């Protein structure tokens, strides 16, 4: 069995517990294999070429797309997640193609305006089964992308689809069938999905801190109340006395990120040695294998709490949240009031299931499209 550590960066070797596309459950619609690309490579390529992927460029991570050009968007967030996930995957001899596909697709279902938009849409959709961005990501790749002549969606492999679905209520799991069966059986996802999930957390905790400091909504003094940040910030000051704030923020954040990634690697290797899963199926039966150490888990929670209090609930962010939610709510109300107000390509779907078609339309919007559409419907200067 592999030691779980790739010694050289060049050889492409899969550990026995890695996802192997030749052992996968295949696609919903059978397609001929292509020469020279694995199934998961093909999935990643389809995701990159999808419309939903391009829209991520104009969707909020924390800061609304119009607030500044240098803040993370859903697109740059997804690329950072893929970078972290791929480097961890390489060290653990996991399937890099699958983990890249999952990382790039994980936020495809996000509404405009980030979590503010998702919360507002979920509230509107309560009587109609709710709205959850993670389930919506699967819906995008399974149904909403309209690119292929023979089927709706991207017709991705089972393992990619299953790994995109990070959370799921029992009710949704019952409706979704086999792809959500693990939630009903209380089994683990593949290791690639577990790592991608933690790479997501490493990415957003660090880049939100970075963006928060850049925006001035968080000060360096405040950031230094997080012990982990303080430790690395002081190390940077000692090593490079007199360095500018901008450089010391980056030097601190990159150390912080590296510390989290190394901890994730070491704890995951420790668990792999303890449980010795010998196949991708065996991973599902084990306790969670990709994890931070207990100590790091605690420190990570401190970082999250800090960001929640000082950034996500900052007055300036709350004021934008309020406006964003109003846009989403009013768009929902107007299209529920009269389905004929939807663009024509959505009306046929809306006649079958109005609320879901309206939610799909709104969820697909970029921040600026939602603002413009709201202006067109409610702004008197548009007359
Ligand atoms: Mg994410």
Description:
This protein is mainly α. The chain has one domain: Orthogonal Bundle (Hypothetical protein af1432). 63% of the residues lie in helices and 0% in strands. The chain is built from 19 helices and no strands. The chain has helices at 39-48, 51-55, 74-92, 96-105, 114-125, 133-144, 158-164, 170-176, 181-185, 191-215, 220-223, 227-239, 245-275, 280-285, 294-312, 315-337, 344-352, 354-364, 367-378. α1 runs parallel beside α4, α4 crosses α7 (158-164) and α10 (191-215) packs across α15 (294-312). The longest helix is centred in the last third of the chain and has 31 residues, at 245-275. The protein is globular. Residues 1-11 have low confidence and may be disordered. The structure holds magnesium ion. The site of magnesium ion (MG) has 5 residues, from α3.
Report the order of strands and helices: HHHHHHHHHHHHHHHHHHH
Calculate the mean pLDDT score and round it. 92
Query: Cα-atom Rg, whole angstroms?
Result: 22 Å
Broad structural category = mainly alpha
The CATH superfamily bears the name Hypothetical protein af1432
The total count of strands amounts to 0
Bin the strand percentage.
under 5%
The helix tally amounts to 19
Largest sheet report: none
Number of domains: 1
List keywords for this structure.
19 helices, Hypothetical protein af1432, disordered N terminus, mainly alpha, binds magnesium ion, 383 residues, globular
